């Protein structure tokens, strides 16, 4: 079976910074509360003329440069997002247009914060069967468009960004060694957007409260599931890769909350020095979180050839998953 290998990564975060102090002017909160409960100091917010696919196009530059692969060579684009440019067409098609990736097929994946891990798993499966050879997996969000800036329970957490990985068949020992995906749809209402879909369409019943288009979350319950599921998924992929936790060089978790990450690391028996963190700067960027962190880790030299890298994510759905990659 062919293995998929990451040969290029890229990321982009919008220029505008929203600090905890900025948020404290909008809702009853404080920098100290947000830092102590989440580890987030600031997040990025897209400009009003920046769509999610614009962020992806910026992120793609770095990945093309690193891999030496050109847009026309790409044969599949997978875009993980819950904030696509349109309901129709898929954001991956818009990305295709912006990149000039004329030879690609394009599809979106909706698995919230676990979307990028889902994309990696799909890419791995297509490469293993020989169906596609050069695949781009994006994770990108403009969550600021679905965040209620009057709800202190959620608005302190989320930010905007994009990340991407280019995958090709591996010719050596490197590549994705194992992936695991899981969902529990019975817990859909712990983290969801109630309005705007067919369950509660806008327009049909007259004007509706615009906050129904925003993220609704039961933070405490999400927290418990996040720790349990990311820990469980991580242990499964480490075992399936035939490794012990000590052999993992770097853990790149979904950057949701510092306390969640610390609890998962503790569950795995992994020292925090081996955990890559950038949530202080970006907050939770959902599907963008893992590829943004992965790209920064690569560019900072935290990931080297031969390293075993673990990634795990968790999000609305509920969905969760993990992967072990030999770099
Ligand atoms: C949201 C979260 C930070 C809240 O932290 P917590 O320690 O669980 O806090 P609680 O929900 O118990 O709330 C404690 C109090 O703080 C208040 N509070 C909530 N947000 C606040 C804020 N931004 N500033 C100040 N106070 C806040 C609550 O209203 C509550 O007050 P009350 O006791 O008077 O009702 C935490 O639950 C969390 O991170 N959950 C996971 C969320 C997540 O990662 N979601 C995305 C998954 S992909």
What's this entry about, in short?
It is built from ten helices and 13 strands.
Structure description:
The chain has helices spanning 20-24, 31-38, 52-67, 91-99, 115-129, 152-155, 219-240, 258-268, 279-282, 289-299; strands spanning 4-12, 16-19, 42-45, 76-80, 105-109, 135-142, 160-169, 175-183, 191-192, 216-217, 250-253, 308-315, 319-326. It is of the alpha/beta class. It folds into two domains: 4-173, Peroxisomal Thiolase, Chain A, domain 1 (3-Layer(aba) Sandwich); 177-326, Peroxisomal Thiolase, Chain A, domain 1. Helix 4 (91-99) links the parallel strand 4 (76-80) and strand 5. Helix 3 crosses helix 4 and helix 7 runs parallel beside helix 8 (258-268). Bound molecules: coenzyme A. Coenzyme A binds at residues 29, 33-34, 37-38, 113, 152-153, 156-157, 217, 219-220, 222-223, 226, 256-257, 260, 284, 314-315.
Question: Tags for this entry?
Answer:
single chain; 327 residues; alpha/beta; Peroxisomal Thiolase, Chain A, domain 1; 2 domains; 5-stranded mixed β-sheet; 4-stranded mixed β-sheet; 10 helices; globular; binds coenzyme A
Q: What is the CATH class of the largest domain?
A: Alpha Beta
Mean pLDDT: 96
- CATH fold group of the largest domain: Peroxisomal Thiolase, Chain A, domain 1
- From the spread of the alpha carbons, the general shape counts as globular
The distinct ligands, each listed once, are:
coenzyme A
Helical element count?
A: 10
Question: What kind of sheet is the major sheet?
Answer: 5 strands, mixed
- Rg is 19 Å
